[in-house]
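Bumping with the actual sequence this time:
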Amino acid sequence: MRVLSLAGLALISVALAFGAKPMQVFFVDVEGGQATLIVSPSGESMLVDAGWPGRNGRDASRILAAAKKAGVKRIDYLVITHYHTDHVGGVAQLAEKIPIRVFVDHGASVEHGKEADELMRAYTAYRAKGQHLEVKPGDKIPIKGLEVDVVSSGNQLIASPMPGAGVPNPVCGKEALRPEDTTENARSIGILVTLGKFRMVDLADLTWNKEIELMCPNARLAPVDVYLVSHHGMNMSGSRALVEALHPRVAIMNNGPRKGGTPEAWQVIHNSPGLEDFWQLHYSIPGGKDNNVPDMFIANTDEQCEGQWLSLTARPDGSFTITNQRNRYSKTYQPKS
């Protein structure tokens, strides 16, 4: 007789509790930063990063448009993956327009200086108005209706493989390590989001050596359905050791027109065994015609754009649908057999 694991029973219970409702995800275009809005079947929301500051409130307005589309009137959890301007800079403008209940981060910044300190002061001023949750690897972000596991945070990684992981990674040893990254990038909060049989991973700007440490010699993460491309598709992240072990069905790249989408990183994803489709928030000008996907999979094809998003609807049976706001192109991926 087959015995279900406690984790399996928990996931089934979550699906039953919310009537097999879907999860919604909006990959908001903040032009080379991150702002990913996740709405649980319970109706609770989690925003991963808040984009850039300034620009007449551009990024806050784009996040609010996605929130309105999703029926979200407050952000229950704002996850600040690390303290770089393209991830935390937009907090002040966003917090003036929509309530934020819980601020999630990895603790103190390791970067200092005039700009870094001002950025941190601006963030902590708004954080003080809500609740604060400092997370470490192995913690869960307690959004109702989803399993959200923290797999990296504060330069640390989960010590043990997640369920379904732990197998040897054949790519390990084939890529050289890089110089040690002492910036906030290596301290990024990375999360694994699970709804029933559906799995999505977002490692923010985690860099090369930390990726390899996470996935070698045995992968600590199991294959996923959707991989939000690390570091906007920049070649300081996105190792084969990570991407091929994740074995994603679909990759989504939150690049800008001139940031991210570098040819080397793009090719690793494009050539990943088992990849069914690759979606981009922007046409990558550095990538050129040979390192961009077909236009129907790109939310914004022009450098001066209207900030169109990609959206995802995931269901507990493992099926999911991705839609391009710009052209309304939509594709559904059936559950894996």
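The tokens above came from a reply further down the thread. The domain at 22-328 is CATH 3.60.15.10 (Metallo-beta-lactamase; Chain A).
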